[in-house]
């Protein structure tokens, strides 16, 4: 059976309790597969990017028919702002029906009018979102041109500037290292592995460090970063003083050079 995430950010936990470790987050409008019920009111689910965790039944709309109807609709993704409020009316004074984070999905109805897009929510309600916040929902790479796709990956990762570090996080409320790079790829239409290593059957393969280009990934023990060009990389780190999204350099002469990370590179990965 499948279900739709019906809350702003759905916590995928290690155990069926809110006090458990956060493993991942599924975002509003995403579809998950229900695998089992480990405890009353809790389900183990698998996301469309093949990550698993335990979620509260309260956060889901359960049922294959509801999922089939939702999946058949065209989608827009929250992209150009950290969050989007879906309002009851096409005006800022409308009441907030649902808040949706970057990466969450809504279904557009008709064409935008006066800067507002009418949208359908996962539970069937309709409301209005500022059209300028919405982006195209990509299920295939955003561009066939390698240079353009690499640039899109970097620009998307940089949207998370200012986000603090959250273990298991993948939203502007908090994001970890693999959450950052996997969301950048996902928003550009590419599903990569959500953890900090190269995994077989996902489209990242190892390359030499000297061949690295923007959009490629740097792997360290338990950590991953995205190379953004000019000897620099962005990542989300819990290190004191950084506490989230930051940019560092591979150049030993740069003020933001991190010798500890450079010495620990285990692999360089590329989609290309």
Description:
Helix content is 13%, strand content 38%. The protein is globular, with a radius of gyration of 19 Å. It is built from 4 helices and 22 strands. The model has no long low-confidence stretch (mean pLDDT 97).
Reconstruct the topology from this structure:
Elements: E1 2-5, E2 9-13, E3 22-27, E4 31-39, E5 42-47, E6 52-56, E7 60-62, H1 64-71, E8 76-78, E9 83-87, E10 96-101, E11 105-108, E12 116-120, E13 126-130, E14 134-136, H2 146-158, E15 170-171, E16 174-175, H3 177-187, E17 205-207, E18 217-220, E19 223-229, E20 232-237, E21 244-249, H4 259-262, E22 267-270
Antiparallel strand pairs: 1-4, 1-7, 2-3, 4-5, 5-6, 8-11, 8-14, 9-10, 11-12, 12-13, 15-16, 17-22, 18-19, 18-22, 19-20, 20-21
The residue ranges in which pLDDT falls below 50 over 5 or more consecutive positions are: none
What is the CATH superfamily classification of the largest domain?
Answer: endopeptidase domain like (from Nostoc punctiforme)
Overall shape: it is: globular
- Helix/strand/pairing category: mainly beta
Q: Spell out the helices and strands N to C.
A: EEEEEEEHEEEEEEEHEEHEEEEEHE
Q: What's the architecture of the largest domain in CATH terms? A: Alpha-Beta Complex
Strand proportion, as a percent range, falls in: 35-45%
Whole-number count of domains: 3
Largest sheet: 6 strands, antiparallel
> What separation lies between the terminal Cα atoms?
35 Å
* Beta-strand segment tally: 22
């Amino acid at each position: 059976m499948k279900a739709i995430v019906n809350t702003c950010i759905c916590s995928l936990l290690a155990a069926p309790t809110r006090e458990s470790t956060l493993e991942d987050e599924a975002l509003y409008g995403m579809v998950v597969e229900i695998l089992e019920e480990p405890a009353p009111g809790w389900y183990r689910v698998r996301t469309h990017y093949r990550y698993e965790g335990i979620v509260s039944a309260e956060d889901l709309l359960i049922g294959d028919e509801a999922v089939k109807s939702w999946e058949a609709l065209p989608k827009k993704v929250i992209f150009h702002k950290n969050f989007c409020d879906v309002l009851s009316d096409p005006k800022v004074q409308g009441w907030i029906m649902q808040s949706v984070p970057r990466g969450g999905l809504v279904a557009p109805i008709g064409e935008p009018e006066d800067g507002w897009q009418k949208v359908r929510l996962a539970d069937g309600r309709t409301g209005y979102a500022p059209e300028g916040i919405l982006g195209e929902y990509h299920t295939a790479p955003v561009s066939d041109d390698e240079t353009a796709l690499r640039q899109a990956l970097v620009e998307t990762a940089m949207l998370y500037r200012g986000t603090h570090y959250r273990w298991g996080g993948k939203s502007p409320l908090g994001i970890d290292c693999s959450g950052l790079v996997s969301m950048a790829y996902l928003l550009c239409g590419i599903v990569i592995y959500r953890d900090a290593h190269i995994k077989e059957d996902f489209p990242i393969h190892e390359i030499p460090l000297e061949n690295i280009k923007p959009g490629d990934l740097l792997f360290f023990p338990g950590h991953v970063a995205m190379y953004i060009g000019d000897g620099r990389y962005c990542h989300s780190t819990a290190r004191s003083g950084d506490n989230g999204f930051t940019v560092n350099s591979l150049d030993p002469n740069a003020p933001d050079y991190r010798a500890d990370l450079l010495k620990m590179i285990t692999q360089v990965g590329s989609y290309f």
